Amino acid sequence: MTHTKPIQITTRQLMDLTWAVETIVADDHNLDTHKGEVSCDADGEPVMETWYQSYIYGVCVLCCVERPGVTYTIEWQANGGEETLADAFDFTVEVNPLGENELDAGSLEIVNKEGDSVSTSTVHEIGNAIEQSVCWEHEVKKRLPTMPGPDSLDMDNVMDTDMETIELNRDDGPDVRFTGEEIASASSYNYQGPRNIRWTELALHRTAGGKWVCHEV
Hints:
The chain has helices at residues 11-15, 85-88, 120-132, 136-142, and strands spanning 7-10, 19-26, 30-40, 46-64, 71-79, 92-95, 102-104, 108-111, 164-168, 176-187, 201-207, 212-216. It has 4 helices and 12 strands, in the order βαββββαβββααββββ. By secondary structure, it is mainly β. The strands form 3 sheets. Strands 2, 3, 4, 5, 6 and 7 form a 6-stranded antiparallel sheet that branches. The protein has a 4-stranded antiparallel sheet with strand order 9-10-11-12, with no helix packed on it.
């Protein structure tokens, strides 16, 4: 029985090869809403704040252009912002620190310049160099979900189950009552000048059904 000797490639030759994105796979988007008390206003009433937890895990496979069959697999994570729903869909893509990135040399044997097999740590360094030679994060980001419109967003997967009943008083019509949460608020109040006796307050609410309600006082 004869054994075919594997083709050897040095670490330098391997890092000089050209790499491209072959496959990108993303898991489901995890998007949760949290709401809690962060402080109290001047009247001692609790001030509530809403924040989001948005993340996606996935895998990106880089392939060697000159040597098909040689690949490098990157496990990545994408994290969205916390402050607004739009921020939750503004992702930052990076290598998953708990992932196991893997260089598959196929039928090649990776050796140093003396022809000796390289250590695991050296293979890890090669993988890092390959990873940095391709703008794979940009390609991953192009495939991530973008914020849908209010009518198409699945609010059951975004909102918590502790939404409150909100009643808004109106001077020019019947009061408005709905289940939802306050998303943002603003006030023109100033402790000096005329705006400490007359000012405008705005509050933006989102209903459990995904509608938007703006209240002006």
